[in-house]
Each structure stands twice: as C-alpha cells, then as structure tokens.
Amino acid sequence: xxxxxxxxxLICFSIVACSCKGQKSFGNEYLxxxxxxxxxxxxxxxxxxxxxxxxxxxxxxxxxxxxLESIDLKTSKVIHSIKGLKEPQGVAYIPQxxxxxxxxxxxxxxxxxxxxxxxxxxxxDLGSDADDVRYDSANQKIYVGYGEGGIAIIDAQTHQxxxxxxxxxxxxxxxxxxxxxxxxxxxxxxxxxxxxxITTMNVTAKWETSFGANFPMAxxxxxxxxxxxxxHPAKVVAIDEMTGxxxxxxxxxxxxxxxxxxxxxxxxxxSGGGGAIDVFSFSNSKFTQIAHIAxxxxxxxxxxxxxxxxxxxxxxxxxxxxxxxxxxxxx
Length: 331
Description:
By secondary structure, the protein is mainly β. The chain has a domain at 45-208: 7 Propeller (Methylamine Dehydrogenase, Chain H). It contains 1 helix and 28 strands. It has one helix spanning 2-21; strands spanning 32-38, 49-52, 57-62, 67-72, 77-82, 88-94, 99-104, 109-114, 120-125, 133-136, 141-146, 150-155, 161-166, 174-177, 182-187, 192-197, 203-208, 212-220, 225-232, 234-240, 246-251, 256-262, 267-272, 276-283, 286-294, 302-305, 310-315, 323-328. Strands 1-28-27-26 form a 4-stranded antiparallel beta sheet, with no helix packed on it. Strands 2-3-4-5 form a 4-stranded antiparallel beta sheet, with no helix packed on it. It has a 4-stranded antiparallel beta sheet with strand order 6-7-8-9, with no helix packed on it. A hairpin with a 4-residue loop joins strand 18 and strand 19 (225-232). The longest helix is centred in the N-terminal third of the chain and has 20 residues, at 2-21. The chain is globular, with a radius of gyration of 20 Å. It starts with a helix and ends with a strand. Residues 1-21 have low confidence and may be disordered.
C-alpha cells in the first residue's frame, strides 16, 4: 500500500511539474539567442523597456531597484543608472527632444531626462501610480496610464498635461490606432476593455473581457486587430477593433506581461513569468504557435525592436544576476 501511494505521489508530482513547465522548447529559428547582457547590482522586479534606435540604447525601468538603466546594445554594457526613482514602470524615448520619460508608480510622477547627460529636465505629476507609456511620434504626444483610472496626454515639447480620459479602474496595457482615432485600454479590475475617442478623450465603448486579468495588449494597425493577453486562464485573444468581437483564441504562457505584434511577418511575441517566450503566427484569423523558448521563471517583461530584428527579454535577479537576453528575429 505504501509503495502504491508513493507511485501515485510521483505521478501527481510529474503531472504538476509538466503543467508548470508546459511545452518543451522549440522554434529557435523564429527567436535565435544572440547574447546575454548582465545588469550588475540590479535587484527586484524589472518593468517595461524602450529603445533609442539611432544610438541602439535600451532603457530598462528597474521597478524593484528604483532606477532606470541605460544599456548600449553595441557594447553590451550599462551606460548609466538614474537613481532615486519611485517604482519606475513605464518608459519611452522621445527622439525629437532627445529625452527619456519615466513613469513612476510610487508617486505618480512622470520624470523627463536628457538622454545624453541624464540630467532631469521636467516633471509632470499625475497624482499616483503612473504606469504604461505610449508615444505618438508624429504628433509628439505622450500617453500615460495612471491612478485609479486615467489616461493622460502630455505634450512632449512643453512637458504639459494637455488631456485626460477617465476610466473605472487602473489601466494596464493599451494601444493607439490613429487611423481610426481610437485608444484601446485593458482595465482588468473592471473586467473590460475600454475604447477611447482620441479627439474627445471620452470612453465610447466598454467591452466585457472573455477571461480574467487582461494585462498586456498588442495591435495590428494594418488590419485593425488588438491582441489581449490574459492570466486567468493564460490565453491570448484576437479582437476586431471595429466590433469588439473575438476573432481567435489560443493558449499562452502563464503570467504574461508583454505582447508585441510584428506586422511585417504577422507574428505575435509574448513573454510571461511562467518561464517562456511564446511566438505565434497569425493569418486567416487563426493563431499557430511556432515557438516556445524556455526562460528564467519570473522573466515577464520584454521589448520587440523590429527595426533591429531584435527581441529583448528582461530577467530579474535570483540565483543568477539580473540580465537581458537578446534574440534575433527573422527578417
């Protein structure tokens, strides 16, 4: 009897282990490992990233370390660390002014820094929990999700807040489709996706979510489709922007935090804390998983830089130091 119980326990353990790890790695031809960049002395959670394309510099919001790290991709070295931030979450590079904006969750401040000297140039206080950032380069407008429910517009030249949209709860991932003049926002606490008119900054539609904990969002601006990543359960859903109707659904790595769509190749990239990067092709209204690349558990945030054929994963410190894993993507 004891032997039977032992065997049963081993079987149960194997099932749990398999369900945690899920698939074996495959599809390296779609995400080819290039190099590791060590981030010395960096502790705690890592949030969002952005890239200065001209200088090939990556900016990393090191939330748990209260710093912003600047990394040169050409030399694979940390150039500078801006210290004294308050839970930095969102970050964006502004090429016209050669500035970096960092959204701080701890105090709601959006801090601007000169990208060469790293000196502070301005601060816009949004009150609380400044989070995800999107930059409209053509119109030089910065969009920031913040607080208990808002999307703020900040003028990149004047550093002034010029607009605001009110939401029922804190926004997570959001995307902008200028062709149809709309912003799509994940509002997980309200179990919905809100649609905002860019001109009026009014919410024009509220779509009930298919699953729970909708955090990241990617967009296909050509075909006007948004891709929403859910954590409960782990799913990715393609949604028609015009109607809010579901187009396709697929299983996804757990604890997903970033999604990117490469319209050149119709590929979707997802990074999750469950220990993998998933890559899907999307065509004929259907997801096909083409890669599952094992990563460090807890490595949730990433950055796709299609202009450099590069995908970057941020791995927080643990038994090994914090680091960036750099991959190349097919042309």
